[in-house]
Backbone:
């Protein structure tokens, strides 16, 4: 495949499916020998954001820092795939405004479904008041108003979600496959 | 020009000439339409390291963070030019070990010369005990044991220093100019 540099930013609540979808997208990009980097929670916590907490200020710093790295990669022809809760709309917009090719993917899932799934047991604890500043329960999540793609992990398979994103990237001329 | 991805890491004390040399290198890379990014003190403080101080731990975190970003750029074919005091040898070595194409430049200048120049008035204040944890005076600076290039801003012009670095990059096949 050939591609431009761009940032593919997946936002959504914990457990909504950001990692699942970004991992599959990474496989597909790598299969096409694309220049691509994944900035997900683990990578970011380890390498960029040690010491930051869950205050709005710290969350915003985290998002801006990921945005900075994505910008450097994107403007040099590399694909940056970001999977980050990134709960505040204004901060996402700020990052978006800095990056020429920016595609926002809203990984949506109703909170009832997230609480029922509760893979890590976090929702149960948050609903019981045991976890402070939990996004969507005791801390805000502001959904995108005009996301470029919306995927619904409660209604679509991961393969379908990936396909939606892929088509949008093709439609914009950001990727081309033979 | 054509080039590979690599990290060009300038280490040295405050005022030794890292910024002067890296700025001139940036001009030369840009004139050759290279894919290149500068990670210097200003860029890093603004975008990566807000909130970090001057303890060994914080300085190491800062250096590792710059190293992480340099690694992402380098391995995707981009030149990362770093100008950072990066006082601790072990931490520089740790970053070096992670990055395939890593060129360490020691920007050397005797402390007497730095104190006499004292562009920002920092050495006077540090020598008077008014600035704690000042590298080279009240905080350690560990020079590289085997730097790839040594430049001496008290004996060479910036143009000469840049030329030395340039030749080393050519010698390694990291850059090619027509």
Residues:
């Amino acid at each position: 495949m050939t591609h431009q540099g761009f940032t593919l930013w997946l936002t959504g609540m914990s457990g909504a499916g950001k990692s699942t979808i970004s991992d599959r997208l990474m496989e597909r990009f790598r299969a096409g020998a694309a220049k691509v980097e994944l900035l997900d929670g683990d990578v970011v916590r380890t390498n960029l954001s040690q010491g930051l907490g869950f205050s709005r200020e710290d969350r915003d710093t985290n998002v801006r820092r990921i945005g900075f790295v994505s910008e450097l990669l994107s403007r040099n022809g590399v694909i940056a795939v970001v999977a980050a809760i990134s709960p505040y709309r204004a901060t996402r917009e700020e990052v978006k405004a800095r990056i020429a090719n920016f595609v926002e993917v809203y990984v949506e899932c109703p909170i009832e479904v997230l609480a029922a799934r509760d893979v890590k047991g976090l929702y149960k604890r948050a609903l019981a008041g045991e976890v402070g500043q939990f996004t969507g329960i005791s801390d805000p999540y502001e959904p995108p108003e005009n996301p470029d793609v919306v995927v619904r992990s409660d209604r679509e398979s991961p393969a379908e979600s990936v396909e939606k994103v892929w088509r949008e990237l093709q439609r914009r001329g950001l990727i081309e496959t033979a």
The mean pLDDT of chain A is 95. The CA atoms of residues 36 and 79 of chain A lie 4 Å apart.
